Amino acid sequence: MSSCAILFIMRTPHHPQVEEITVEGILHAFSDPVRIEIFANLATAECAKNCSTFLNIQKRILPKSTLSMHFRILREAGLIRSERKGVELINSTRCEELQDRFGPMIRAIVETYVKQQKTV
Fold first, then answer.
1. Is the distance from CB of 37 to CB of 57 less than 8 angstroms?
2. 35 assigned to some structural domain
3. Residue 21 near residue 14, CB atoms below 8 Å
4. Average per-residue pLDDT in the chain?
5. Which domain holds residue 99?
6. Sign of CA pseudo-dihedral 51, 49, 90, 80
7. Tens-place pLDDT, residues 52-74
8. How many CA within 13 A on the CB side of residue 92?
9. pLDDT tens profile 88-106
10. Are 72 and 65 in contact (CB under 8 A)?
11. Structural domain tally of the chain?
12. Contacts of 58 by beta carbon, 8 Å cutoff, 6+ apart
């Protein structure tokens, strides 16, 4: 009996260069309440978070596939960086990298979102 090894290739997530990031892409990523909630939580966290941290968000449980889609959109918009640690993706914001290009815009959007959530 022969043994067969299965090779899983884990792709490195694409992160756009700062020059490729647009206001339109950022606003699209923030247009979904789940994504802005994820980003606001990452922006105020003391450390990077894995995707599973956000399975229960906005008072509902999200399927992993839906959560992956939200993280992909945030990453492709240039808002977060996802780094592979074993089988997990650890996510953090790119706020510092984006500061020169977008000034206070991203921070203002997140702060306004957080204030809005306190009044809801």
1. yes
2. yes
3. no
4. 90
5. 18-119
6. positive
7. 899 988 888 999 999 999 999 99
8. 10
9. 889 999 999 999 999 999 9
10. no
11. 1
12. 33, 34, 37
State the Cα–Cα distance between residues 64 and 41, nearest whole angstrom. 18
Which tokens go with 16?
């756009």
Please check whether residue 3 lies inside any domain of the structure.
no
Would residue 67 count as lying in a domain?
A: yes
Residue 65 C-beta-side C-alpha neighbours within 13 Å:
0
pTM attached to this predicted model: 0.87
**In 51-93, beta strands by DSSP E:** 56-57, 60-61, 80-85, 88-93
Q: Using DSSP, how many helices (H) and how many strands (E) does the chain show? A: 5, 5
Q: What is the pLDDT of residues 17-42, one digit of tens each?
A: 999 999 999 999 999 999 999 999 99
CATH code: domain of residue 60: 1.10.10.10
Beta bridge partners of 61: 56
pLDDT band per the 50, 70, 90 thresholds, residue 1: very low
**Residue 16 carries which DSSP code?**
-
Q: Is residue 103 part of a domain?
A: yes
Q: Which of 17, 65, 67, 15 is nearest to 37 (CA)?
A: 67
